[in-house]
Amino acid sequence: MALSPGILPITIKHCQGCGIEFTCGEGGQNGGCWCMDQPIGLPVPSSDSNSDCYCPNCLEKIRQQYLNKGI
Ligand SMILES: [Zn+2]
After folding, report:
1. Cα of 53 from ligand 1 centre, angstroms
2. 71 C-alpha vs ligand 1 centroid, how far in Å?
3. What residues pair up with 24 in beta bridges, in sequence order?
4. What mean pLDDT do residues 5-24 have?
5. pLDDT tens, residue by residue, 17-60
6. Neighbouring C-alpha atoms within 13 Å toward the C-beta of 42
7. Is residue 45 in some structural domain?
8. What is 21-59 written as a DSSP string?
């Protein structure tokens, strides 16, 4: 599947953490998904459009947990 770099289909996702509905594929600094702006190492399944992602709120919580563990 060949997509133009930086352009993603915008899909409605449901957060794996809290279950709220949010959009994936937009909001990023480079025109991609906002989750692509998150630090490498977070469990963001952005490469698989069939899997649900985490909402920004939960991703922030996860990031804090990682920081607390010193990873
Ligand atoms: Zn969430």
Report:
1. 9
2. 22
3. 11
4. 83
5. 899 999 888 888 877 788 777 766 655 544 554 556 788 898 88
6. 20
7. yes
8. EEEES-B-TTSSBGGGGSPTTS---TT-TTS----HHHH
Task: Kindly give the distance from the C-alpha atom of residue 1 to the centroid of ligand 1, in angstroms, as a whole number.
Answer: 28
Residue 59: predicted pLDDT? 84
In a domain, residue 58? The reply is: yes
pLDDT, position 7: 64
Distance (Å) from CA 65 to ligand 1 centroid: 14
Please give the pLDDT value at position 21.
93
Residue 4 within a domain: no
Number of domains in the chain: 1
Q: How remote is the CA of residue 20 from the centroid of ligand 1, in Å?
A: 6
